[in-house]
Amino acid sequence: MATLRNLKIKTSTCKRIVKELKSYEKEVEREAAKTADMKEKGDDPYDLKQQENVLAESRMMIPDCRKRLEAALAVLKGTLAELESSNQKEGPEIDDAGSTIAEVEQLFQETDD
Q1: First to last CA, the chain
Q2: Nearest CA to 70 among 21, 29, 3?
Q3: Between 82 and which of 2, 43, 55, 64 could a Cys-Cys bridge form, CB atoms 3.0 to 4.6 Å apart?
Q4: Nearest to 18 by CA among 96, 73, 94
Q5: Domain map of the chain by residue range?
Q6: Assigned fold of 4-110
Q7: SS3 for 88?
C-alpha cells in the first residue's frame, strides 16, 4: 500500500539520482578538459594514460546512473498512481512528486535529442 511517506521517499530518491547524474556529467566535462590539456602539454604518457582511465570511469557512471533514474522514475510513477487511485490527489507531496516526474522526463528528452 502506497503512503504519502513512501511517495516522499521515492521523490527524494529521484531528486538525489538527478543530482548525481548532473554531477557525473560535470565531472566528465572537467576530466575531458584536463585530459585535453595534458595532451596539449605533452605530459608523461603514464600520467596521460591514468587520466584517460579516470575519464573512462566517469563516462561509465552516466549510463548506470540513467538506468537507476529510469527505474526510480517508474517506481515513483507507480506509487503516485496508486495514491491517486485511492483518492489522495492533493497535497504538497503529490505536487512535489508530479513536478519531479516532469523534471526527470524533461531531462531524458533533452539527453535523447
Answers
A1: 37
A2: 21
A3: 2
A4: 73
A5: 4-110
A6: Methane Monooxygenase Hydroxylase; Chain G, domain 1 (1.20.58)
A7: coil
User: What distance in Å separates the CA atoms of residue 14 and residue 70, rounded to the nearest whole number?
Assistant: 9
Helix/strand/coil for 92: helix
Beta carbons within 8 Å of 76's beta carbon, 6+ residues apart: 7, 10, 11, 13, 14, 97, 100, 101
- Contact yes or no for 91/4 (Cβ under 8 A): yes
Cell of 17: 539520482
Residue 72 and residue 7: Cα distance in Å, rounded? 11
Minimal CA–CA distance to 53: which of 42, 38, 63?
A: 38
- Give the amino acid at 108: F
pLDDT at 65 over 70: yes
